[in-house]
Amino acid sequence: MEIGEKQQGKVSVLMPVGRLDNETSPAFQVKLLYAVAAGGAVLVDLSRVEYVSSAGLRAFMMASKRSKALNGRIAVAALAPMVKEIFSISRFSLIVEVFDTVAAATAALG
Q: Does residue 61 contact residue 87 with C-beta atoms inside 8 Å?
């Protein structure tokens, strides 16, 4: 899995591509936890992620816990329809902030 990274103001943005599943989630989780440990706000741009499994959701859960402990924020943006449905059904929008666009997320987080 390719995971792009950039800094947009005070917000660290991760940009994974493909699927967040049992095979790719460990590498994603390492990058996500590293970004959270740096402090501040972390945004995951999911515009190029087509599917998130329970393993992918677990990575978000762990990052959310760590972020709260550090008084940080974690959010996702630009969810594809299937990913949006997964977040809705699993109620993960109660765990991480969900934004329609990356621009809206960076404005709210930064």
A: no
pLDDT digits (tens, 9 = 90+) for 89-99: 999 999 999 99
Give me the half-sphere count of Cα atoms (radius 13 Å) on the Cβ side of residue 60: 28
How far apart, in whole angstroms, are the C-alpha atoms of residue 29 and residue 68?
A: 16
Burial of 90 (C-beta count, 10 Å sphere; 0-12/13-18/19+): middle
Q: Which domain holds residue 20?
A: 2-109
Assess whether pLDDT exceeds 90 at residue 1.
no
Q: Where are the beta strands (DSSP E) in 21-110?
A: 41-45, 49-52, 73-77, 97-99
Mean pLDDT, all residues of the chain? 95
Element (H, E) at 17: strand 11-20
Tell me the residue type at 67.
S
CATH of the domain at 65: 3.30.750.24
Residue 106 near residue 13 (C-beta atoms within 8 A): yes
